[in-house]
Write a structure and sequence with these properties.
By secondary structure, this protein is mostly helical. The chain has one domain: Dehydroquinate synthase-like - alpha domain (Dehydroquinate synthase-like, alpha domain), CATH 1.20.1090.10. It is built from eight helices and six strands. The protein has a two-stranded antiparallel sheet with strand order 1-2. It has a two-stranded parallel sheet with strand order 3-6. A hairpin with a 4-residue loop joins strand 1 and strand 2. Helix 1 runs antiparallel to helix 2, helix 2 packs antiparallel against helix 3 and helix 4 packs across helix 7. The chain binds fe (ii) ion (FE2). The site of fe (ii) ion (FE2) has 4 residues, from helix 4.
Length: 274
Amino acid sequence: MRAHYDYQTRKITAPKLTRAKPPVIAIPTTLSAGEFSSAMGITDDATGAKDIFIDPKVVPRAVILDPVMTTATPARLWSSTGIKALHNAVERYYALNANPFIQGLCLEATRNVFRYLKRSVDDSNDLDARGRLQFLNWMTAFGAGKGGIGLGHGICHQLGGVCDVPHGISGCIVLPFMMEFNRPATLEKQRQIAMAMGFEDTAASDEEAAIWAEQQVRGLIASLGLPARLQEVGVKREDLPKVAEMTLRDRTLSPTPRPPRDADEIFTLLERMF
Ligand SMILES: [Fe+2]
């Protein structure tokens, strides 16, 4: 049985994974944060659905963060997973079940992505920047079981399953649009996010601050040479209805601050991202 999310009742049903798990020691070379998570995504080849399974026993016993191990990571993989860390931080910050502890970590991570990601790409031997990014990446995943993510991650998971787009790359396209979509429900929180990115205009409205934050995110992604549209990464227009349908069942939707009404609303969003 696979994990199932019922978007009408907002209830998640997840299977128990009963077999013994081998102990894992992780030495990550990207900023995906998978090593800090008890969740794993597996694509069902028959349907293209990406299902999320959860078991605390899959979490590594130890994670060794050594920036030297990341210097040979391809730039696009490194920078796009850095944007995934930002995607985690933003979505976890304004998720309905966020708490102040997680939110503090997410704001600090957001601040540091803007400080160090471009620097770490411009010089892959900048171990100070890379090490700081590894720590902020940990911060975006810390206490993951106690906080949620949201619709943006749901869309990324299903773009992975249906269209084979890596999570970091899809996040570059999805995150700015999600900040815009969620804006009516998260204005004050997005002002805090903007302030973490360096917004200082105290006379500006929350909406102006939130729009500024979205523009900063778009600017950072463009400065890294990462994509802004789904058609740039091989997604076909005819895939969009299936992605929308599958996203509605993705369990990450549960704490999303502005729940989509139905698959049509997600499809409309995907068309804008196309
Ligand atoms: Fe995800």
